[in-house]
Specification:
This protein is an alpha+beta fold. The protein is built from 13 helices and 20 strands. It has helices at 19-25, 34-38, 40-52, 56-72, 76-93, 98-114, 118-133, 205-219, 285-307, 326-333, 340-348, 448-459, 483-491, and strands at 140-143, 146-149, 155-157, 159-160, 163-170, 177-185, 189-198, 224-231, 243-251, 255-266, 269-278, 357-360, 374-378, 384-388, 394-400, 407-411, 426-432, 435-442, 467-471, 476-481. Helix 1 (19-25) crosses helix 5.
Length: 493
């Protein structure tokens, strides 16, 4: 299994400008300004850093930093080249680091637009989104009449009015920026998109709400503005109304069209629609579709957001030391009732180091995924996100497009009596091919940061299984205990 790659940003960067970069630069006309002159010494450092770069991470950062510098200096041709070099490194050496790749894609596409290569820029962005969307099962789950975003409860229905859902989009592989699109091509070309983005609280709510309109105006600077960042005529649930921006645009060949963006903040998330339609359908078409989609989703998202407030409650759980008794671990490994025969063997100490015990037991079943999932945290490269399930026995689940195995934390049955006193035990587990493995045991509900640290430790090979249990075709269970646990057990005698 590949180790997770951390996104490490450095302030280092390049060598002399390659011929290809010079060719790209010829497509851009820019003069030397005093600000660019002041950056000359910085460019010297960046070029030297690229020349000295040895690891793929260092080379990626060096190329992207030069691309960013050249873009700021309006030397867009070189920005195109160096961002392209960074993209090549991301694809070759960091295939699972979606965030790293996207940073290069965004810079290259922006530079491509500046040199007039708009179609190439659009194709680059679309290809990047398609890559992420091909691995979206961990972000979406099926529901009646549509698909449901795991972390918010937002539902993309199969139809938006008469428009069928065409596809879903994962702008973030961790599920923090997603969407779905609807389109119907007939005598008119109409498109509706519904988006959900994690709101980090970096800007006031009102500014975040208005952000959708600002992005629209930036893309269509020559359009005719009809309504710019105004409150919508409808409200959804008990929250503030959405803000919207509406413009008209078009050509003699294509006819007049409208496009608008409606944006609303709900808890820690931003809900947004983007609608484009033929003018013949009337100026209200976009708001009608937005109102319908918002009314179907707002209450669900509000309810999910309120439930997810439980993630802020104290979670004092600590790792249980690995020198606990063999009986504790063996019971934790079993799924279902513990047979009397197993208890006798554990208590008598018949299980010796390097041996296994075969005892009848019910088949191992993966615990059902709870309906409510809250976003807890993610890896820096978007490879894995941790979901929290308030109040459920299965308390945490790791979601990933690149890690096939499902790691989860479950509240153990207190009847097992694994830890003395009134504490509740939780275990970090993984079930694969009929084998249930325990990697960590906590003496109470653990904090998300502790769980995520342990999951990353397992994926990076730093944490081994404490033990495992499997069931054969005859219904017999096969229990294996880590040699470290066995050694600790023997030393304690």
């Amino acid at each position: 299994m590949k180790k997770l790659t951390a996104l490490i940003l450095t302030a280092t960067l390049t060598s002399a400008v390659p011929a290809l970069a010079q060719t790209e630069a010829q497509k851009t006309v820019s003069g030397t300004t005093s600000a660019q002159s002041d950056m000359a010494s910085q460019m010297q450092v960046l070029r030297k850093a690229l020349q000295d770069a040895k690891t793929p991470a260092e080379k990626f950062d060096a190329n992207l930093n030069i691309a960013n510098m050249r873009f700021e200096q309006e030397i867009f041709g070189e920005a195109v080249y160096y961002a392209g070099e960074a993209l090549k490194i991301a694809d070759a050496d960091f295939p699972n680091d979606a965030e790293r790749r996207t940073s290069a894609v965004v810079r290259r596409s922006e530079a491509l637009r500046k040199v007039g290569r708009v179609e190439e820029a659009n194709a680059l962005i679309n290809e990047d989104v398609d890559r992420k969307s091909q691995k979206g099962d961990h972000i979406w789950r099926d529901t009646d009449g549509g698909i449901r975003h795991r972390f918010t409860g937002m539902v993309c229905p199969d139809f938006a009015g008469q428009l069928p859902r065409q596809e879903f989009h994962n702008f973030s592989q961790a599920g923090l920026d997603v969407g779905c699109s609807y389109k119907l091509i007939s005598e008119h070309v109409n498109a509706v998109s519904l988006y959900m983005t994690r709101y980090g609280g970096r800007v006031p709510h009102l500014d975040a709400i208005k952000g959708g309109g600002a992005a629209l105006l930036k893309r269509l600077p020559d359009s005719k503005k009809i309504a710019v960042e105004q409150p919508a005529k409808f409200t959804s649930g008990s929250i503030m109304p959405a803000y919207y921006t509406l413009v008209s645009f078009g050509s003699v060949q294509e006819g007049e069209k409208y496009t608008g963006a409606w944006t609303q903040v709900i808890g820690n998330w931003i809900l947004k629609t983007r609608v484009t339609w033929a003018a013949e359908l009337g100026v209200g078409f976009g708001e009608q579709n937005t109102k319908m989609l918002f009314s179907q989703n707002t209450d669900k998202i509000i309810a999910n957001s309120k439930t997810c407030e439980a993630i802020r409650e104290p979670k004092p759980g600590k790792r249980v030391a690995r020198d606990d008794t063999l009986s504790m671990l063996m019971m934790a490994l079993l799924i279902g009732d513990v047979s009397a025969e197993l208890e006798k063997q554990v208590e008598s100490g018949d299980n010796k180091k390097g041996t296994t015990a075969e005892i009848p037991t019910p088949p191992i079943v993966m615990p059902q995924e709870p309906i409510t999932t809250c976003y807890a945290t993610k890896s820096s490269g978007d490879e894995i996100a941790l979901g929290y399930h308030p109040g459920a026995d299965r308390r945490y689940t790791a979601y990933s497009a690149v890690v096939e195995d499902t790691y989860f934390v479950i509240k153990e049955d207190p009847a097992l009596g694994l830890i003395s006193g009134d504490k509740q035990q939780y275990s970090l587990k993984m079930i694969k091919d009929g084998v249930s493995s325990v990697y960590q045991v906590y003496d109470a509900e653990p904090h998300p940061s502790l769980v995520f640290e342990d999951i990353v430790g397992v994926l990076n090979g730093k944490i081994d299984a404490l033990g495992s249990v499997s069931v054969d075709a005859k219904g017999n269970s096969n229990i294996t205990i880590s040699s470290d646990i066995m050694d600790a057990e023997e030393e304690s005698k």
